[in-house]
Amino acid sequence: MSTKDVPAQRSPAAPRPRPVHYISWIALALMTTSSVASLRAAPTMAVYGLACIFLYIVPAIVFLLPTSLVSAELASGWTGGVYNWVSQGLSKPMGFLAVWCQFAMTIFYYPSLLGFVASTLAYVINPDLASSGIWTAIVIMVCYWSGVWVSSRGTGSVAGLASGGLIIGTLIPGVVLVLLGTVFLGQGNESAAPMTAGNLLPAWAGLASLVLIVNNFLSYSGMEMNAVHVGSLKNPGKEFPKSMFLSMGLVLLIFILPALAISWVVPADQLSLTAGVMQAFDAMFAQFGSQWLTPIVGIMLVAASLGGMLTWLAGPSKGLLMISRQEGYLPPFLQKLNRRGVQQNILVTQGLVTTVIALAYAFIPDVSSVYWIFSVITTQVYLIVYLLMFVAAVRLRRTQPDHPRGYRAPMLVGLCGVGFAASLAALLIGFIPPSQFGSGDVGVYVGIVAGGALGLGLLVPYLFFRFRKPSWKTAQPEEEVAAS
């Protein structure tokens, strides 16, 4: 039989490459805006009146821009998020520190966020409750444990609420707030905060007068998570910078205009850092005889905040779980999953700590002071992540210059230098009590902030790493391959 008569053996068809689903740079800008922008920080900056413009733009230039461009290069070259970036650039222990801080900051973030929810919800029920520490503590505990219950069931029912948060709880209330504030001034009412050129810069009263700017670093944090979408752009080199500049402009508008509107209506000495947004809405609606709208706006803000909490609840803890199972950084008890594959033990342990922190609201008379302290601790723990990220980015550019990257940040070393210096300065300034809280005990303030930020951000992960055992590594081989 000739070779012609032998049926040709068909080689298996090569798998078709998956089609790439591109997104426009405008769509990425809107995604970034939705994950970063919020009205929660508006009362904090409304204290400064017109100077809030300066206090928002400065951290946007020295922190938001470097963070966005540097994380875009890292995300386009290395999968696995901040753990892999820092592990490749520095070491695996430093990578664990980064992913731990990304998780640990949520321990203080939830009481801070839910403190805002409590004060907002008070305006729906009884505005006098907004200054009650007991009310705030109860709301924090009920909301958090309800979130743990929902997350432990592995449900995706909150996805719609979370994705609609930008419109429901930010854009609509923000636009209404600014429009009412503009009409308020247009009717001839005098602004509660002076709106003259001499007020463009904050009054200098020593370092304490600049401490509130630290909170803006937290407002801009999270950009490294959006950088993972850089590979979905057709031309990342040109489109990603345009996307970041557009989102930065939108974020600035959402942050600045509502803060200004609040400063027009509510005097700084009467402003609550947790209830300031609702104070402004209540005052404006009263001005126009429409106070019945206040509870409706409150429900919108609460719904958006709770949706955001649920999206954050499982994400960082799941990342910490995966790394710990592969490398054995956490004891097996914290690595256990429930029958739905959710890291329930981590969530419950985190909840116990959150409950203890929430009780601080019940025992410290000034709710605004507690809210501010938690915001500072959250920011400082998260800043450790960025300090490591900037150093790792410089080392990766030098040690792996030929590693394929979908995007290369311009002047990377300069961007990292500016971002690192700004992050370090913000971390150090956070230990200084702000001028608005000058009447309190400085030693107590520094002790609480240092204990929270350095203890949770550095000491706890060191202890886990120091006393880890080989038996703590519980990931199956296929899990390690899939995660690599």
How many alpha or pi helices? 19
Spatial separation of the terminal alpha carbons? 51 Å
Name the structural class. mainly alpha
Per CATH, which architecture?
A: Up-down Bundle
Determine the fraction of residues in helical runs and give it as a percent range. Answer: 55-70%
Q: Encode the helix/strand succession as letters.
A: HHHHHHHHHHHHHHHHHHH
| CATH-assigned homologous superfamily | Amino acid/polyamine transporter I
Largest sheet: none
Radius of gyration equals 24 Å
**How many beta strands in the DSSP annotation?**
0
Give a short summary of the structure.
It holds the Pfam family AA_permease_2. This protein is mainly alpha-helical and 484 residues long. Helix content is 68%, strand content 0%.
Write the layout of secondary structure elements.
Elements: H1 25-36, H2 42-46, H3 52-77, H4 81-89, H5 92-125, H6 133-152, H7 159-163, H8 165-186, H9 214-220, H10 223-226, H11 236-265, H12 276-287, H13 294-327, H14 332-335, H15 344-363, H16 367-399, H17 412-429, H18 442-466, H19 477-483
Helix pairs in contact: 1-11, 3-11, 3-16, 3-17, 4-5, 4-16, 5-6, 5-13, 5-15, 5-16, 5-18, 6-13, 6-15, 8-11, 8-12, 8-13, 9-16, 11-12, 16-17, 16-18
